[in-house]
Amino acid sequence: MEGTALAPVFAFSVLALTVGLSLARPRVGRFRIRHAEAGAIGALLTVILGVAPPGILLVAAKLLARPVVTIVSLMIITLVADRSGLFARLAVTLARAARGSGRRLFALLFLTGTLVGTVFTNDAAVLIFTPLVFHLVERLSAGKWTREQKLPFYFAVLYVANLVGALVIANPINIVVSSLFKIGFVEYARWMALPALVSVLVSFAGLWIFFGHAIPRRFEQEAGASRKDPQWRFQLVCSGVLLVTLAGLFSEGWTGIPTWAIAVGGALLLLLVQFLFSRRGVVPVLRGVGWDVLIFLTGMFIVGLGLRQAGLTGMIGDLLHRLSGGDLARMRLSSGVVAAVSSAIINNHPTADNMAWAIRAIPVGDFDQKLLAFAALVGGDLGPKMLPIGSLAAMMWFRILRSEGVEIPYSLYIRVGVPVTLAAVVLSLLTLNLECYLVR
Fold first, then answer.
1. For a pLDDT cut of 90, what percent of the chain falls above it?
2. Cα distance between residue 392 and residue 290, in whole Å
3. Structure confidence at residue 222 (pLDDT)
């Protein structure tokens, strides 16, 4: 089937169906189709319709094994830290540090959320920070803030989950693509730290322009003396393990221990900590792992491989050559912009997969291929903010807020997302090109 004229039609139809089901979450009888089911349906249809051969499942398993192990480990680390009360304690600390200033609270939440999303992955940042910020805002507003005054804080959570990842662990697509190009933890951080900083500054400025007028000037600080958290020992040990794990990731270059192995080590240590400090043991943590996220990621990866079989990577390669005229600096800009727009339209997971395969086929050296991959990841990390279907993190953000009775209009999401994202993409890519120029 791959060689027929219908293969591209089937491949794009499967993609549209998969993304559509993920976004709409329709109910079939008593059964609701969610992200995991949508991803599984897309993967099965990719094989059943002959878009890709059955052997593609083995290829996907081999390519995704280490990235998935890394992502599971990061989820476990996040869950144990959350169960220890670290994030709740952090929210209270931020509220006190704001000293009654709504604008200072907004800035502190954005900065802290950025750091959490960088270390704990963007999906984890959304899963934990969205309900945390919702309840914090409800508590601090004491029923006096309007919906418009609360919106800036909700959007802050979304935007810190969709920034350029300064660390490879900040986004699942970074882990998958870096694995394909054999990019190490330190090498990734060295190139992406500055573009990440630019994306943070531009995104914060954009949110301030759109929502700054609505942020409440003051809020009443919570009364009551600070008490010692009964779980402070649990939190202290968790913090120590987290710091050791992060230090291990940065020392990858001279220890030779790969990122996935360090992540697994940190997860196992924290599971031991959870077992020692919690009466409920480790079972709730393992149940809390986003297995549905992993199924969705795997399913979208297989759908992406089907698109590759149908010729999408060749189309992307041709488009990049036409846009850049063969000039590498322009090609990096083109890669980032194409990845951003594609991520917004067809989701960043299949976009990242196909951009990676297209870049691997471009006849340039390993160094330039890696830089093109970095450019594509800039677009893949930022692009989803333009449309609601762009990333799983955005879908989860909508779902969590809906469960709390907060409806965010898609029109508002797009009106804010398109200009802020495009500005962040272009300026981050220009920063990456400047780094390349200085190194060369």
1. 30
2. 12
3. 62
- How far apart are the C-alpha atoms of 382 and 339, rounded to whole Å? 9
63, 77, 79, 156, 275 from 86: Cα distances, Å? 34, 12, 10, 20, 17
Contact 305, 47 (CB under 8 A): no
Residue 27: DSSP 8-state: E
Query: For residues 89 and 128, is the Cβ–Cβ distance under 8 A?
Result: no
Which helix (H) or strand (E) segment holds residue 52: the answer is none
d(C-alpha 355, C-alpha 352), whole Å: 5
Three-state SS at 32? strand
> Which residue in 14, 80, 47 sits closest to 272, CA to CA?
80
What b/e string do you get for 262-294 counting C-beta neighbours within 10 Å, with b at 16 or more?
A: bbbbbbebbbebbeebbeeebeebeebbbebbb
**348 is written with which tokens?**
């960043």
**Dihedral sign of CA atoms 362, 429, 366, 439 in order:** positive
**Residue 291 identity:** W
pLDDT above 70: percentage of residues in the chain:
97
Q: Count the neighbouring beta carbons within 10 Å of the beta carbon of residue 33.
A: 16
Tens-digit pLDDT profile for residues 271-310: 998 888 877 778 888 887 878 878 887 888 888 888 888 8
Contacts with 432 (C-beta within 8 Å, 6 or more apart), sequence order: 191, 192, 194, 195, 332, 336, 371, 374, 375, 378
Written as six digits, the tokens of 354 are 């196909």
- pLDDT tens-digit readout, 160-208: 888 888 889 888 889 889 988 999 899 999 999 999 999 999 999 999 9
Asked if 60 and 247 count as a contact pair (C-beta separation under 8 A), the reply is no
Sign of CA dihedral 190, 180, 203, 407: negative
Contact between 129 and 121 (Cβ < 8 Å): no
Q: How would you class 254 by CB atoms within 10 Å of its CB: exposed for 0-12, middle for 13-18, buried for 19 or more?
A: exposed
Mean pLDDT, residues 393-416 taken together: 86
Residue 53 Ramachandran class (φ > 0 left, ψ -120 to 50 alpha, else beta): beta
Amino acid at the residue 255 = T
Write down the pTM of the prediction. Answer: 0.82
